[in-house]
Amino acid sequence: MLNKKRNYVNLSIKILLIFLIFSHVLIPLVLGSNSFNSTSQIYNPELEISKFSKDDYKAILNEEKQALGNITINDIDFNELEIDFSIENTSYPLIWEDIKSGALNITQINMQFLNTSEPAIVDNMNENIEDNNILKVILNESLMVELNSPTLGYLIYHSRLVPCRLLQFFVDNGTNVFELNNETDYSKDNDDFIIFNYEDFFKNWPSSEFKMYLIWEYELSIDEWQLNQNLSNDLIIQDQIQNFTVEYHYYFVLTGKKYNLSVFNPIIFADNIDVALTVNLPDRYLLSDHILELNNQFININDYLNSNKTIDISLTEHFSADQSKFSLNFTTSFTFQFIKPLRKTWAIDRLIEEIDIRERIYFPSLIQGPQHIYLKNLSFYEPTIYFEQVLKNSSLFNRNSPYFYLNTSLTGKVGILVKVPYLVVGETCPFIIKYRSTQTLRLIITDNIKMPLVGAYVEVYYYGQKYGTYISTEEIQPITPGNTNENGRITLSAVPYGNYTIRVYHNRIFLKESTASTYNEYNYIYTTYPHFPLWIIIFGGINGIILIFGLIFYLKNKKLR
């Protein structure tokens, strides 16, 4: 019975020893197999090219054109306008003789401004409005005609102002006022002079004088009319949504003309008529900081800016038709936004050809500000694309979006400076930079003693989104680098310049988040994952203790034999 018990104990000891030996060898191997048996997946260049479907973006402006508002004339002072009906017309030499002899005498009673019949206007939004830089005004000229046995029974006449178009013609015989018919009662010659046969019209009327009332439409022009943005101030985009205060310069020259007595210079500027006018600026309620100059003299804007934000120039300013100059500086504010950008890349990034031809697609928009004034000269720094990488740039509306080389020694920046196409409020103008991504991102993942960590799973993020063939805030087509190889390495080729976020996992357990950069030759990411020999020490120690206790147990039982 005792021998049987001893045999049972010996067998138990042998089984325990065999179990300890196998556990000592197999357990570390099983634990280590998670690393050494993992396959390494390197970047696969055979990527499916992503497709991009453009939304229905519509241009509000079809040309780079500012609205200029409208200008109307409120009054005209003719006090110093020379009234001389004896403008020589070589087609009627006998009339000239009657004028010189005093047989026919015409004097002006008055010249009166009635109203503006057609303002000058430029609108860049309303296609139903025809742009026009000609101001048309209605004038009433009253004349006294005295007859002292003239040779001829008719006269010719034209206003001193030109171009003038006769709208209505009245005569007053002292008793009645008659409106003349241009088909039967008078005519015009090739120079648009009135030919009035008063003798035929009045028949045998004995009076030696009568009055004429002429309603003219006179044209003045708004020359050099322009609205220009001050481009000396750089407007640098630094946020997805950003407000800009922008300075503009508004300018025009008022020009009117008149007949001259000189045969060699028959038409000159109307230097002796003063004009009162109203300037109605585009989006005037959104403008501020006005600085006004009239004929190169600074004027206190508070004396001219009305409560409705129009600007009135009175007759006392002597703003004449002899090319007087109106100059106004003002500021206005815009709110700019990149639509759903990938952080500070301000864009969607996608692969379009081969393994390294990519596109950066930007969606700039103006969401607030004047609706009739466009904004340009917006720019931003793009550090992740270098000048030599750019293959092509274009915009959906064929607007200019140039880019410029950034010199590190001068600017302290690298990459390119990109100009955004001009924009108007309510409009999004997509534009694209096509470039070649030439960089390589090299990662080395290590364990807690900085030895290569084999089989670690890695995710790569670019500006907060998984890096891939299509990167945006709404949709991605990620590239999965896979697991580290036997050297703990993962390599991504043909990536853009910049910084990346790296997330490391092992056995589906998150280990660490770190940053990596294409500017580094290698990016080392140190994790706290235990080094493999540590498991050997731990299990070896445990097994050693068990073996010692087993040996003690064995020796005690041996003495009992």
Q: How far do the termini sit from each other? A: 12 Å
Query: How many helices?
Result: 5
Overall number of strands:
38
Q: How many distinct domains? A: 4
Please explain how this structure is put together:
- This protein has five helices and 38 strands.
- It has 561 residues and is mainly beta.
- The protein folds into four domains: 2-33 and 532-559; 69-222, no CATH class; 223-232 and 243-334, no CATH class; 336-436, Immunoglobulin-like (Sandwich).
- The strands form eight sheets. Strands 2, 4, 7, 8, 11, 13, 17, 18, 20 and 23 form a ten-stranded antiparallel β-sheet that branches. A six-stranded antiparallel β-sheet has the order 25-28-22-21-32-33, with no helix packed on it.
- The chain is rod-shaped.
Helices and strands, with pairings:
Layout: H1 2-36, E1 69-77, H2 93-101, E2 104-118, E3 120-122, E4 134-147, E5 155-157, E6 161-162, E7 164-172, E8 177-179, E9 186-188, E10 194-196, H3 198-202, E11 209-229, E12 235-236, E13 241-255, E14 257-259, E15 267-269, E16 274-280, E17 288-294, E18 297-299, E19 311-313, E20 322-338, E21 347-353, E22 357-362, E23 364-368, E24 378-382, E25 390-395, E26 403-405, H4 408-411, E27 416-419, E28 431-436, E29 439-446, E30 457-462, E31 465-466, E32 468-471, E33 476-478, E34 482-483, E35 489-495, E36 499-506, E37 509-517, E38 523-526, H5 532-559
Parallel strand pairs: 12-24, 29-38
Antiparallel strand pairs: 1-3, 1-16, 2-4, 4-11, 5-10, 6-14, 7-8, 7-11, 9-10, 11-13, 13-20, 14-15, 16-19, 17-18, 17-20, 20-23, 21-22, 21-32, 22-28, 24-27, 25-28, 26-27, 29-35, 30-31, 30-34, 30-36, 32-33, 36-37
